[in-house]
Amino acid sequence: MQAASSNWKPNIGGRLPKQIQRALPVYAALILFIVWLSYGNSFSPKFEAAQVRKRSTNGQKTISADLLSQKSPTRFPKKIWQTWKIDPLGFEERDLNCARTWTQKNQGHRYEVLTDNNDLYYVQTHFGPEGIDRSDIVDVYTALSAKIIKADLLRYLVMYIEGGIYADIDVEALKSIDRFIPDRYNEGEIDMVIGVEIDQPDFVAHPILGSKCMSFCQWTFMCKPGLPVMMRLIENIILWLTELSKKQGVPISDLKLDFDEVISGTGPSAFTAAVLAEMSVKTGYEVTWDTFHNIPESKVVGGVLVLTVEAFAAGQGHSDSGNHNARTALVKHRYHASKWPTAHPRYKHPVYGEVEKCNWEVECVKMWDYNTALFKGLTEEEKQKLIIEKNQADLLKQAEDEDFARRLEQYEAARAAQEVANPAPAPLLQPAMQIPVEAFPAQQPQGFPPAQPAPAPAFPPAQPAAGFPPAF
C-alpha cells in the first residue's frame, strides 16, 4: 500500500468534463491577467525607482532629471543655501553676523553652506552618473577657474536640485522668510519668488549701461526644486561658456571675462533673460520688462512672484529702491563680499573713470557721455596731457587721504593713551527724578512784598564790524 500510494498521481482530467478541460488554459490566462492588473503597479514603480533613483557614495539620494522636473511641491522647501570660501565654523565676524540673521529669524529652516572644498563633490553627486547624469554640466563646472562664474552657476544648480532660498553671504535677513509671500497669494500656485534690482529702462540704448539697466535680483531668490527655468538658465550658461571658449581659442579654464560679460553671461542679466523667457512660455505671450517697470506692488506672472525693488534691493539710491527701514524691505545687501569686479574690471575711461559711479543719475551720465565724446575728438597730444593731469590729481588726492588717515590714527591713539593715564571718575548717582525749583512756591516772610528780579542793564544792540558789508 505504501509503494502504491507513493506512485499515485491525481487524475483531475479524468474527473472533469471535457468542456471544462478545454477551457482550463483560458481560465488560467484570465486569472493571470487579473493578478497582473491587480499587482502590476506595485511592481513597476520599484523597477522604475531602480532606474531613476540611485545612491551616491555617501548614501544621499539623488533623482533623475525627468522625475525631478515632474515634482511640484505645494510649499517651498524650508532650506537656506549660501556659498562661500569656507564653512561657517571659520566665518569672519561680519559673515557670521549676516548668517545668524537667517538662522535666528527662520528657526524652522535647514541652513547649509557649500564651500570651495565641497562644491565639486556636490555637483558630481547630483549631476554625475549617480544623479541626473549630465556630464556636460559636471565637465564645465570642473573646468571653470573664474570664481564668480562658479558662484553664479552653483546657486542655479543647487536651486534646481534642492529648491529653497538662496542668499549671498553678505546678505542680511531683515524679515523672516514667511514674509516673502504676501497673504493674498496662494503658495501652491507660486514656483519662484524674485525681486527687481535695477529698473532704469531709459538707459537701454546706452553703450555700457544698456545691457544691465533692467534686471531681477539674484543675490537673493526662492525656488521650488526642478523648475524648468533653472535648467534653462544652466544650459544657457553652458552654451555661452562653450561658445566663448571657441571664440577666444582657449579652454574654459583660461577664459578672460570683463565685468559686463559676467553680468550678461551668468549674473543678473542672464538670470533676467531666462526668467522672462520662461514666463513667456508659461503665459503663451511675450513677457517684457514693461510688465515690471515701476510696479507699485508685487505681481505674479507665469507662476513667478515678482516683488518690488524695495524687497531685496532697498537702499541702492536708484530705481526708487527706498530704504531698509521700510515695511516691505526683506533683506539688506552689505556688499562686503562683492570684490569680484577687481578680477573682472568694468570699462574705466582714462580721464573720466567708470560711468557706473554715476549710480544711474541721469545728469551725471549725460556729463560722462559728453566729456568722453569730446575726449575722442582730441589729438593724441591733448589726450596724453589730460591723462597726465588726471593721474597727478589722483596721486595728490591719494596722498591727502593717506595723510588724513595717519593723523586720525594718531589722534585716536593719543586719546586712548590719555584715557588710560587719566581714567574718568565714576559717575555720581543721579536722583530718579529732578524737579526744577521753579515748580515750588517761594517762601516769603510775612509783611514783605514778593522779590522782584533786578532789571538787566541796558545794552545797545550789536553792530556789525566796520568795513564788512552786510551778508546777502
UniProtKB/TrEMBL annotation:
> Which one of the record's GO molecular function terms can you name?
alpha-1,6-mannosyltransferase activity
Mark the transmembrane ranges. 20-39
Which domain of life does the protein's organism represent?
Answer: Eukaryota
Q: Residue spans with biased composition (Pro residues)?
A: 447-463
One GO BP annotation is: protein N-linked glycosylation
Against InterPro entries, the record matches this protein to: GlycoTrfase_DXD_sugar-bd_CS, Nucleotide-diphossugar_trans, Och1-like
List the Pfam families hit by this protein, alphabetically: Gly_transf_sug
Q: Disordered: where is this region?
A: 442-472
Q: What's in the GO CC field?
A: mannan polymerase complex
Keywords assigned: Membrane, Transferase, Transmembrane, Transmembrane helix
Q: Which family does it belong to?
A: Belongs to the glycosyltransferase 32 family.
The entry's protein name is Glycosyltransferase family 32 protein
Q: Please tell me the species this chain comes from.
A: Hyaloscypha variabilis (strain UAMH 11265 / GT02V1 / F) (Meliniomyces variabilis)
List the top taxonomic levels of the source: Eukaryota, Fungi, Dikarya, Ascomycota, Pezizomycotina
